[in-house]
Amino acid sequence: MYYSKVEIHLGRLKRNFRKLAECFPRQTLAPVIKTDAYGHGILPCAHALEAAGATHLCVYGIDEAAQLRSDDVRARIFALGGVLFPEEIPMAGQLENTAISVWRRETILALSEYGVKSGKVFEVHLKIDTGMSRLGFFPAEVPEVVALIASLPNLKLCGAFTHLASADVPESEHCFVQYERFKQAIAALPADATEIHIDASPGLMRGVGLEFPYARPGIITYGYGHSQFHPELALEPVMEYKSRLVSVKTVPADETVSYGGCYRITGAPMRLGVVPVGYGYGYDRRLGELSAPVLIRGRRAPIRGRVCMGMFMVDLTEVPEAQVGDEVVLLGHQGDECVDVEELAALLQTTQHEPLCNIGKEPNRLFYSD
């Protein structure tokens, strides 16, 4: 039996995508559904986005692309990570309508060789490193690599892309430096390599490179990460995390709460509730010592003591009428109150992607069409 649930609202996902498509009509949007759609479920999200009008989808690896194809997802796929290891090439060879990122010469040669043997023509995107220092060719290498691809059989260069490292940092101008480097680099592309993209969610929100024909919105598609630059978009959070109080009791003053005794009740007895969720279900252990809030009866209740593997304790001082069985919202709305992922990420001093991916590991993940 499950004591908690993660709710994924696919109707909200569809509305978010349609709203973004209206806001950026000049670009073909290829929403990112890598890493199990940031914890939201790669297959349900892929089908929902297709139903909302998405004609392109972005994944990270070849295995994710194969997963989509095996579940009858028809959209064109951009495999952003490309082939990480040679043993993935035969799997890549089975994929249709999929652009595979290339970012080293050895992979380009291996794809061509396999293509000749199998009769497969690989469609590829050139990954350009303009300042992320991760994967990709440096801009100065692009003309040589373009010539290499053109000289080899069974390869078709369809486009190129880069990844902005600091577009979500308002005071940083590095994204504009990367933009200029990218513009110079893609001048070496052939005229028919038209699938050009620079913008993930932060780049779209900053308005960098909106003249390029494609964009790959990620976190904003799920309703997060837009408020810093465009709160007027009013995108809807797709994920909610809910549980119930399993225990309520009054604990005397001067007692400690949870492992390590890091929290001590002072002054007066405290009414504590126990929630059957813990770090074993994707809820970050650090949120206990940070006194993260949950919602009970429309009011905030802070966590007291460390989050355990399968439980944590909450202070019910502001919710004196709380009872066993009451709904507890760890992420989402209840009444007029809200705990959103931006708040949790700020407490944890991390990106919003991390708590979403972790919470998405909850085994009881339910999908709602609206």
Report on this structure.
This protein has 370 residues and is an alpha/beta fold. The protein folds into 2 domains: 9-222, Alanine racemase (TIM Barrel, Alpha-Beta Barrel); 239-368, Lyase, Ornithine Decarboxylase, Chain A, domain 1. Helix content is 28%, strand content 25%. The protein has helices spanning 10-23, 34-39, 42-51, 62-70, 89-92, 105-118, 142-151, 174-185, 201-206, 286-289, 341-348, 353-359; strands at residues 5-9, 28-29, 56-61, 76-82, 98-102, 122-127, 155-161, 195-197, 214-215, 239-244, 247-251, 256-257, 263-264, 270-275, 293-296, 299-304, 312-315, 327-334, 337-339, 365-368. β15 (293-296) and β16 form a beta hairpin. The model has no long low-confidence stretch (mean pLDDT 97).
Indicate the structural class: alpha/beta
Gross morphology is elongated
List low-confidence stretches. Answer: none
Head-to-tail CA distance between termini: 25 Å
Count of helical regions: 12
The CATH topology of the largest domain comes to TIM Barrel
Number of strands: 20
> What number of domains?
2
Strand content: 25-35%
- Per CATH, which architecture of the largest domain? Alpha-Beta Barrel
Mean pLDDT: 97
Q: Please summarize the sheet with the most strands.
A: 10 strands, mixed
CA-based gyration radius? 24 Å
The CATH class assignment of the largest domain is Alpha Beta
CATH superfamily of the largest domain: Alanine racemase
Portion of residues within helices: 25-40%
